[in-house]
C-alpha cells in the first residue's frame, strides 16, 4: 500500500516559497513522502508512549484526494487540488456497468473464523480475490481484484445498470420502441414508430418506382444506418449525465453489451458553498512541526552538508517542542493515552510516583 501523507504540498508554503520547493524537489516528487516518513517516525518516537499520536496522524492520512468514483457521505473530508474540504451533503460517485460480477453474496454457512476476520467494506481500499467483507448486515466475497488504487470501484450488492437483450437486425421484423438491434458491428435503438417507418419506406418505394428504378419489390429495405427511426448507441462515458428516471432508456455500450441505468450512475459535481466547504480537521501543532521537520529531512536528502541555519534552527525548535511534550513540560494540545484499569491519563514514572507519594523520603526518583 502506498504511503498516505499527513501533510499537503500547501503546508510547506508557510515556511518556504513555491520556487524554493521546486528547487529542492528537482522534478522528483517522491522525495517529499520520503522526508515526511522520516519526520513521522521522529514524532512517534517522542510522543507515542503517552499521547494518541497515531490517531492524530490518522485524521490527516484518511483525507484522500477526491475521486469521482467514490460516493461520499456528509461530514467527511476530501482533498481537491491540495486544499482540504468538508462535505456538506452526500456526493454521489459514478458507477460503471459491468458484465462480470465482482462480488458474491455469502448465503450458505459461513465459518466463524471468516466472520471474525471480515472487515467492513470501504470504498477507499483495494480488495484481493477471496477477501470477505461485511456490507451492512450481509457478507460478500471478492471475485475479481479491484478497488480504490486501481480506480475500479464496485460496491457489493449495488446494481444501477441493467443488461438489455439485443437481436440481430432483420428487415421484415416489427420493431417496438426502445428495442435494440445489432447491425454491422454496432448497436441501434429503435426510436421511431413502426407505422411511420413503414409509411416512409412505402413513400420512398413509390417515388423510386415513378422514377423508373424498378418495381416496389425491388426497392431495398432501409438499414439502421440509413433509417432515421434507429439511433446509434454510444459507448459508456463516465463524464456523461445519464437519464435514470422511470421509463427512460438511456442505453450505453460497455464491453460489447448494452445497458441502461435503473439507479443513479452519475457523479455529482462538487461546488464550494453548495456541497463542500473549506475545513481542516488536523491538529495544527502537528502540522506546523511536522512540516518543519520534513523540510529539514528534505534538505538532508538533497544536500546533507549544505543546510541553511534557518532550517536547522527551525528543526531544533521542533525537536525541543517534542522533547518538552514528552516530558510534560508543555501542553501540546494532544489527546492523552489512558490507563487500562483506572482510565486515567498515562504519565511517566517520575510524575506518577510524585502524585502518589507525597513523602519525599518515599520517592525513589528523588535523590
Features:
367 residues; alpha+beta; four-stranded mixed sheet; 8 helices; 28% helix
Instruction: Name the structural class.
Output: alpha+beta
Number of helices: 8
Distance between the termini: 50 Å
Model regions low in confidence, pLDDT < 50 over at least 5 residues: none
Strand order of the largest sheet: 3-7-6-4
- Rg from C-alpha positions? 32 Å
Q: Average pLDDT across residues?
A: 86
Shape descriptor? elongated
Q: What sequence of helices (H) and strands (E) makes up the elements?
A: HHHEEEHEEEEEEEEEHEEEEHHH
SS strand fraction: 15-25%
Percentage of residues in helical conformation:
25-40%
Tally of strands? 16
Main sheet summary:
4 strands, mixed
Give a structural overview.
The mean pLDDT is about 85. This protein has a four-stranded mixed beta sheet with strand order 3-7-6-4. Helix 6 (about 285-300) packs across helix 7. The chain is of the alpha+beta class and about 375 residues long. The protein has helices at about 20-25, 30-45, 55-60, 110-115, 195-210, 285-300, 310-325, 350-355, and strands at about 75-80, 85, 105, 120, 125, 130-135, 140, 145, 160-165, 165-170, 180-185, 185-190, 230, 250-255, 255-260, 275-280. It is about 30% helix and about 15% strand. It is built from eight helices and 16 strands.
Describe the structure concisely for a colleague:
The chain is 28% helix and 15% strand. With 367 residues, the protein is an alpha+beta fold.
List the helices and strands and how they pair.
Layout lengths: L17 H8 L5 H17 L5 H9 L15 E4 L2 E5 L15 E3 L6 H6 L1 E2 L5 E2 L4 E4 L2 E5 L3 E2 L13 E3 L2 E3 L11 E4 L2 E5 L3 H17 L19 E3 L19 E3 L2 E5 L14 E3 L5 H19 L6 H18 L22 H8 L11
Parallel strand pairs: 4-6, 10-11
Antiparallel strand pairs: 1-2, 2-16, 3-7, 5-8, 6-7, 9-15, 11-12, 12-13, 14-15
Helix pairs in contact: 2-6, 6-7
Amino acid at each position: 500500500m502506498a504511503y498516505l501523507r499527513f501533510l499537503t504540498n500547501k503546508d510547506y508554503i508557510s515556511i518556504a516559497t513555491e520556487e524554493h520547493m521546486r528547487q529542492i524537489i528537482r522534478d522528483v516528487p517522491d522525495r517529499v513522502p520520503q522526508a515526511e516518513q522520516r519526520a513521522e517516525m521522529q514524532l512517534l518516537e517522542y510522543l507515542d508512549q503517552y499521547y494518541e499520536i497515531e490517531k492524530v496522524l490518522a485524521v490527516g492520512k484518511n483525507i484522500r484526494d477526491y475521486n469521482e468514483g467514490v460516493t461520499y457521505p456528509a461530514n467527511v473530508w476530501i482533498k481537491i487540488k491540495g486544499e482540504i474540504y468538508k462535505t456538506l451533503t452526500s456526493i454521489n460517485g459514478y458507477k460503471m456497468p459491468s458484465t462480470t460480477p465482482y462480488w458474491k453474496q455469502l448465503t450458505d454457512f459461513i465459518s466463524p473464523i471468516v466472520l471474525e476476520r471480515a472487515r467492513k467494506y470501504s470504498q477507499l481500499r483495494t480488495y484481493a480475490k477471496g477477501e470477505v467483507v461485511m456490507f451492512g448486515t450481509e457478507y460478500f466475497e471478492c471475485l475479481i481484484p479491484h478497488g480504490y488504487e486501481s480506480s475500479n470501484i464496485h460496491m457489493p450488492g449495488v446494481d444501477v445498470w441493467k443488461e438489455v437483450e439485443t437481436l440481430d437486425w432483420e428487415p421484415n421484423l416489427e420493431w417496438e420502441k426502445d428495442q435494440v438491434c445489432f447491425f454491422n458491428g454496432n448497436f441501434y435503438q429503435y426510436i421511431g414508430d413502426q407505422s411511420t417507418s413503414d409509411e416512409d419506406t412505402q413513400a420512398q418505394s413509390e417515388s423510386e418506382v415513378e422514377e423508373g428504378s424498378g418495381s416496389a419489390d425491388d426497392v431495398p429495405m432501409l438499414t439502421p444506418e440509413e433509417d432515421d427511426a434507429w439511433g446509434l448507441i454510444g459507448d459508456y462515458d463516465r463524464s456523461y449525465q445519464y437519464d435514470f428516471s422511470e421509463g427512460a432508456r438511456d442505453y450505453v455500450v460497455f464491453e460489447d453489451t448494452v445497458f441502461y441505468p435503473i439507479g443513479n450512475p452519475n457523479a455529482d459535481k462538487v461546488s464550494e458553498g453548495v456541497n463542500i466547504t473549506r475545513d481542516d480537521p488536523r491538529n495544527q501543532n502537528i502540522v506546523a512541526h511536522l512540516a518543519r521537520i520534513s523540510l529539514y529531512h528534505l534538505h538532508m536528502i538533497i544536500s546533507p552538508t549544505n543546510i541553511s541555519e534557518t532550517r536547522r534552527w527551525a528543526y531544533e525548535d521542533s525537536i525541543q517542542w517534542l522533547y518538552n511534550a514528552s516530558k510534560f513540560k508543555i501542553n501540546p494540545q494532544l489527546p492523552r493515552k489512558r490507563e487500562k484499569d483506572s482510565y486515567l491519563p498515562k504519565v511517566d514514572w517520575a510524575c506518577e510516583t510524585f502524585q502518589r507519594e507525597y513523602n519525599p523520603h518515599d520517592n525513589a526518583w528523588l535523590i
